[in-house]
Design brief:
Blueprint lengths: L10 E5 L5 E5 L10 H6 L2 H31 L5 H6 L10 H28 L5 H23 L6 H24 L4
Antiparallel strand pairs: 1-2
Helix pairs in contact: 2-4, 2-5, 4-5, 4-6, 5-6
Length: 185
Amino acid sequence: MNLSGRRRHRRYKTSFPLGATLTFSSPPQHAPVETAMAVMIRNEVFSCFVFYGVLLVIKMYIIAIITGQVRLRKKAFANPEDALRHGGLQFNREDPYVERCRRAHRNDLENILPFLFLGAIYSLTGPSLAVARLHFLVFFLSRMLHTLAYLFALRAPTRSLAYTVAQIPCVSMAVQILMAVAAYA
């Protein structure tokens, strides 16, 4: 506060990737402070990305839970202490269906984590909402099909086609990101 009893407003300037700048002044005491998150959520493309990204993360949690449940049902434990707790060391073994669930989960980690990075950065490049939504939706649906093909052992080439289709939006986003930042390299 200054001597007159009024608050001074400070001006803040925040820079984002790709040259976007947000300038704001400190608000009066009664006004709510707008956070960077509030600004990001108003970005329709970013919000669309967050929607599909969160669904994919939930899917990964579900696969982890399924893997644990299958381990319990098949009595196939990876660690001796778990086997001892559930009947004895003879259950410290591998089971083909448990391994199938684990491979589905590992494949999700290998593919969804890069998508989360690419999608977040791509959202900041200013793409069209319709085009971005198509990228996110194609990836999401392809990963869902890939998981179903893994868990239910669907006939080949269902799983590999789902994998390939999911890579198309990722490659597209990566190329567009590189084109947007190439001038800064």
